[in-house]
Structure formats: C-alpha cells, structure tokens
Amino acid sequence: MEVLVTRCAGLDVHKKTVVACALVGAADAVVEPEVATFGTMTADLERLAGWLAERGVADVVMEATGVYWKPVHNVLERHGGFRLVVLDDGRGGAVMGGTGTGLAGLARRAAALDGTLEVVSPPGGPTAVTLTLPRED
C-alpha cells in the first residue's frame, strides 16, 4: 500500500468520548498506532488538539454519529493547520449552494480563514466533507 500521509489521526467521536488513533512515521517504517481517549468537554477537546499537535498531526479524519462531531470540529478549527474529513453513512446528495448555516456557512467561515471546503456527495452516499485550514505561524 502506498503511504500518502506520514502523520495522521482518526477520531471516533461519541457523545461522551473521542477516541483518537495517531499514526506517525516515515513512509518506509513500521508504525505502531498510538491510541488515546478524551472526554467531550471543551477542556478535554483542547487536550485532544494539543495531543495531535505534539505528534505533528495535521491530517485528521473523523467518524461521528449525529451532531457530536461539531464541538470537536470547532475546537480543532481554532487551532488551525488541520484537515478534517467528515464522512456520513447517509443517502448523499448534499450541495454547497444556498444561504443557510450548513455547508454554505461552513464554506464562508473556511474562506474567511483562508481555508477550503470540499463536498463530495454522490447519490446514494456517503457524503464526505473536507475542511482544510492553514497552520497558524
């Protein structure tokens, strides 16, 4: 398998916990996953952001049910330099247009921070929303 990212993490987001798994290492190295569990209160999510930063992780994928991903996204967004990919198991068909506070609002906020938002949502699903924000210097 070709290695595309040498510092990445996956987040499994639940109502009361976020389980993070980081993989860090050279493309030709055998990498051991590092797993940590965090609470979902703001202070816990700040510790999660620090944990990711300590490992130099800028590429993060997240799996969540319902709206539990939102607080995680909000805290990581403030830290900058992250690429979040949110996948759902829905029926697809999400669109970026409109003036609502959903994807269009997220796209406006990303642009205000010199970031980007990409939505891939084929009919039948799943939908993948990728938010990329620059790293703060």
Put the structure in a nutshell.
This protein has helices at 42-54, 69-79, 103-112, and strands at residues 7-13, 17-24, 34-39, 59-64, 83-87, 116-120, 128-132. The chain has 137 residues and is of the alpha/beta class.
CATH class: Alpha Beta
Distance N to C terminus: 33 Å
Strand content: 25-35%
The main pleated sheet reads as:
7 strands, mixed
User: Radius of gyration in whole Å, from Cα?
Assistant: 15 Å
Q: Biggest sheet: strands side by side, in what order? A: 3-2-1-4-5-7-6
Q: What would you call the structural class?
A: alpha/beta
CATH topology: Nucleotidyltransferase, domain 5
The number of distinct β-strands equals: 7
Number of helices: 3
Low-confidence stretches: none
Mean pLDDT reading: 84
Total domain modules: 1
Order of helices and strands: EEEHEHEHEE
Q: Tell me, what's the shape?
A: globular
The CATH architecture: 2-Layer Sandwich
The helix content is 10-25%
Topology:
Blueprint: E1 7-13, E2 17-24, E3 34-39, H1 42-54, E4 59-64, H2 69-79, E5 83-87, H3 103-112, E6 116-120, E7 128-132
Parallel strand pairs: 1-4, 4-5
Antiparallel strand pairs: 1-2, 2-3, 5-7, 6-7
Helix pairs in contact: 1-2
